[in-house]
Write a structure and sequence with these properties.
- This protein is mostly beta strands and 116 residues long.
- It has a single domain, classed as Clam (outer membrane lipoprotein receptor (LolB), chain A).
- 3% of the residues lie in helices and 53% in strands.
- A 7-stranded antiparallel sheet has the order 1-2-3-4-5-6-7, with no helix packed on it.
- The chain is globular and about 40 Å long.
- The chain starts with 10 loop residues before the first helix and ends in a 7-residue tail after the last strand.
Length: 116
Amino acid sequence: MIHLGGSDLTYEDMTNRALDENNYKRLEDDIVEGKECFVLEVVPNAEIKSTYSKHITWVEKETLIAMKEESYDLGGNLRKKKMFLFKSLSGYNVISNIFVEDIQKNHTTKPLPWVT
């Protein structure tokens, strides 16, 4: 598993999830930081060889941007909690910070400022 810049993020954490490589299930809607969110369970297909058994992702209804995610190891145990912060830049929402807590390692990566 390759970590990005010494953080708790891996390359797999930052890649897009192709629709045909995962199974998706909509869970009960939720509110995160006062924003209404869709909640999705994303389970990678077996041939993907993921290091995760599933992800639970909170997607803001208005912008369709992922705000928060929990990733589970292959044994089904919570591995990481991630929060994504965005800024509007020239009319586009771009990621500005990522907060990652690796539950199993008891380690936290403070927000990584990408756009200031």
